[in-house]
Amino acid sequence: MIRLGVVSSAAVLVVAGAVWAGETDCGEARLVCADVKDSGSATAIESFAQIYADCPIYSQLARDLLIGLTGEASAPAKVDDPKEPRRRLRVSDLRPRPEPDPDDPPQDTDYSDGEYDCLMAAAAPGQSPYFDGVKWADMDAENAVAICADLLLKDQDVDAEVVAAFGRALIKGGKLEMALEFSELAAMEGSGLAMNTRASLYNDGEIVPTEHETAFAWYMAAAETGLPMGMHNVAYGYENGKGIAPDIDKALYYFERAAFFGYEPSLLHLGVIYREGTHVARDMQRAVDYLKMAARNGSADAAARLGYIHEIGENGYSKDIEQALDCYFQAARQNNVVALHNLGSLTYHGRDGVPQDTEAALLFWGRAAKLGDVKSQRKFGRLLYEIGDVDEALRFLRLAAEQGDDEAQKLIRQIEGD
């Protein structure tokens, strides 16, 4: 457990210990912030933000509260004397992980209701076998930050994985400094997600120097905790030589480790590798097996790729239009534009036993066109012109032409008589 009353976001983690940065008592800030928050006074909150400006988590939380009350935030207090850059936590600072006893049963962490709510809003897929994670694209950052911040302001003892989930939500919400602080706390307590978060920050280089070698070291540390996301990122590093010398065998090893835990991006990537024969001999059966597992785990991209394999009998794989339609519809329900476009083509032309249905094609292409798919914008525009809706036809054809579609530009000239 992390005691936020003892170690705060303004702490400097050095080896296995922690010391305060500057002279401001950030432990006191946490206690005062809870009272100020409950007061509902904009004046009190603004004063708090100024007094505890050296405690970035709590001063930022106060400014967020102020925005909620008045619509305006107080300016951060000016710092007269710039401080020396602080020493950041390194992988070598982490405490050695104890060797697990194979005879011990797995321990299910007893989360409080508040911790559970935070994890449901912000935890990563594969972070724990005891709860589902939230995909990055599906996370409501504002809601997740609010839920987790409310918990951290109230509770003294919080599990490291909860703190790590908060850090992930902070990154999605653009609060990178706070995310870095919280990830240091949780990483020190052994959270693989927090280590992965630190790696991503070193890759991006927005608030710490871009250091791909440091990022890879943190990804490897995350992988060694058993985090599938960390394994996937290690594999990506080996595959692309990012932060480490390229090594395809090691890349495949870590992709397969992550896939073993059902990590969707690794399953999808392995499916693509075997489908295209990248790094390995092409193997359509293995490709389909990996893509099916990814699709079962919710990957619309995998389902769309499977649909195309079944539709055309790609690379000698058996053609099965019913399977293709099932896969396309699974992906289309998640607004996958490839699946929507291909369903439009099948229904417009009436191919492979699929009944010709212009209205269905209009629906599929229209949905993909509105999601920004260029080919669908062109085909939807042409179909609208065929049924007499010239203005709407030109609108979608222009959208496609603006994205570089030469065929759409030709159709526009034909319609306008140029």
Automatic annotation (TrEMBL):
Q: Does Signal show up as a keyword for this record? A: yes
- Where do the segments described as Disordered lie? 74-114
Q: Which Gene3D superfamilies match?
A: Tetratricopeptide repeat domain
Q: Per UniProt, which keywords does this protein have?
A: Signal
Please verify whether the record's keywords include Signal: yes
Signal peptide range:
1-21
- Residue spans of biased composition, Acidic residues class: 101-114
Q: Which domain of life is it from?
A: Bacteria
Compositionally biased region (Basic and acidic residues): 78-100
Q: Which Pfam families does the entry link to?
A: Sel1
Q: Which InterPro entries match?
A: Sel1-like (IPR006597), Sel1_AlgK (IPR050767), TPR-like_helical_dom_sf (IPR011990)
Q: Which SUPFAM superfamilies match?
A: HCP-like
Protein name per Swiss-Prot or TrEMBL: Beta-lactamase
> What organism does the record attribute this protein to?
Ruegeria atlantica
Q: List the lineage, top down.
A: Bacteria, Pseudomonadati, Pseudomonadota, Alphaproteobacteria, Rhodobacterales
